[in-house]
Amino acid sequence: MQNFLFNHIALSVKDVDESVKFYQELLGLEEIENTASNSKTRWLSFAEGKQLHLIPRPNAEIKTNKAVHFALSTASFDEFIERLNELKVEYSDWKDTPNKDYIRKDGIRQVYFQDPNKYWIEVNDDTV
After folding, report:
1. pTM of the full predicted structure?
2. CA distance 71 to 121
3. 103 located within any domain
4. Does residue 79 share a domain with residue 111?
5. Is residue 63 a part of any domain in this protein?
6. Quick one: pLDDT at residue 48?
């Protein structure tokens, strides 16, 4: 059986500049060189070499629901909630209660919010 490592997630975005700004301001992601092509796709870096690729598709129809999301973990969960509030980013628990976190059965706290293209993102405190 082969072993796989997570490499990147790619999202179609209507305005690549707006999306880069969102991810840099809220999550502090650093922009890195797009080494794959000379396209307008922009790459951002998570920790440990993981990447977010933002692919400009200004005419694409983007449909999502909360069950389709990517999740990030932080040991600074409360500070992150403060950052969401500072930037006036609306967030909710899994049940769509505004400005509330959710505590899973295993004790992990989580919140959900959307980026400018309405992709869902979960941030939780599962750092074990």
Report:
1. 0.91
2. 6
3. yes
4. yes
5. no
6. 86
CA-derived radius of gyration, the chain: 15
Structure tokens at 125: 């405190």
SS3 120: strand
Contact 5, 53 (CB under 8 A): no
Mean pLDDT value across the chain? 94
Q: What is the pLDDT of residues 76-118, one digit of tens each?
A: 999 999 999 999 999 999 999 999 999 999 999 999 999 999 9
> Residue 4 — pLDDT band, cuts 50, 70, 90?
confident
- Strands 30-32 and 120-124 come out as unpaired
Query: Hey, what long-range contacts does 73-81 have (CB within 8 A, 24 or more apart)?
Result: 73/123, 73/124, 73/125, 73/126, 73/127, 74/123, 74/124, 74/125, 74/127, 75/125, 75/127, 77/101, 77/109, 77/123, 77/124, 77/125, 80/123, 81/111
CB count within 10 Å of CB 86 equals 10
Q: Which domain holds residue 23?
A: 8-56
DSSP reduced 3-state for 38:
coil
Residues in the chain: 128
Number of structural domains in the chain: 2
